[in-house]
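Researcher: Here's a chain I'd like modeled. Treat it as a single chain, no partners, no ligands.
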Amino acid sequence: MEEKIKTLSSLYANHFSADLDAVRLRTGRVTERIRVDHPEAAAVVAFPDADHILMVRQWRYAIGRETLEIPAGKADPGEDLHDCARRELQEETGYRARQLVPLFRYFPAIGYSNEVIEIFAASNLEKQSQKLDEDEISRVELIAVEHVHDLISQGIIQDGKTVIGISLFRARWERGEIPGDFFR
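Model: Modeled as a single isolated chain. Structure tokens:
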């Protein structure tokens, strides 16, 4: 168990806050810990058909490059994560899902953040609008399912939620844990 002694510094931004705390370890030694308070988020492995995954190209400031990812985003205050997943899919790709299945819920940065991401699989997509969130998404791409694991192996897809979502969907599909009518 670690005991917070005091907060040394804080940062408050639009959607999160971060504290640098002095803490006492169970051994009695004093050290520092960073804690990011972040809203929950949802991500979607979206299938327009059984052979393709809908993905987005997005600039990521922290790593200084564009990435290929599944659609995702943080929940609005009080927003259910199912609703968040549906909204983010619509905002980032212009598609609406008639079927949404929860896959996994995890902490992407458990060492310093309380953020939780719930990953969903979506099918039976309907094109709703062409107006995308241009501040975030540079383009939407259809990726062949048969090639997506090659893109991961080659390091083209490196985003954690994307790798987890695609891999867990595949594993759960192969074990028969995804509804048989998922692609209908």
